[in-house]
Design goal:
It is built from four helices and six strands, in the order H-H-E-E-E-E-E-E-H-H. The chain is of the alpha+beta class. It folds into two domains: about 1-40; about 50-125. Strands 1, 2, 3, 4, 5 and 6 form a six-stranded antiparallel β-sheet that branches. Helix 1 (about 1-15) packs antiparallel against helix 2 (about 20-40). The chain is elongated and about 55 Å long.
Length: about 130
């Protein structure tokens, strides 16, 4: 994230054809995007960040935030799985936009990460059957 946002800022600063107030505004927008992205990934100490996620039965998930809020969620078909990375796109009850949870291989112990990938693989056909 830091590299992508840093690259965008470097390109904006290099565009001499654009007026400096526009470039400054766009750099501020990129920095704001970085702030919210890092907050969503849990880098900031936001009480609304996800502290725990429990996969229950039949694509039912329980999401717990650090402020104590518990919400029901459903896994979306747009989720992504790779041996080094799992991106869980969750539709949270009472929220219009989905939430993405990025899990790198080193963010969980090896056994838990492997079991998550196996369960996602074996239950993939039934996860999204309802729509």
């Amino acid at each position: 994230m830091l590299l992508a946002h840093g690259g965008a800022i470097a390109v904006l600063l290099a565009l001499q054809a654009w007026p400096w107030p526009l470039r400054l505004f766009l750099v501020m927008a990129v920095l704001a995007g970085l702030w919210f992205t890092l907050g969503g990934l849990g880098w900031r100490r936001s009480p609304a960040r996800i502290c725990r996620l429990v996969w229950q039965v039949e694509n039912q998930w329980r999401l717990e935030r650090c402020n104590g809020e518990i919400r029901a969620a459903r896994l979306q078909p747009s989720s992504f799985m790779h041996p080094w990375l799992v991106v869980l796109n969750l539709r949270i009850e009472g929220r219009r936009l989905p939430c993405s949870l990025v899990l790198a291989r080193d963010s969980l112990d090896a056994s838990t990460f492997r079991r998550l990938r196996v369960r996602l693989t074996t239950e993939a056909g039934t996860l999204f059957a309802e729509g």
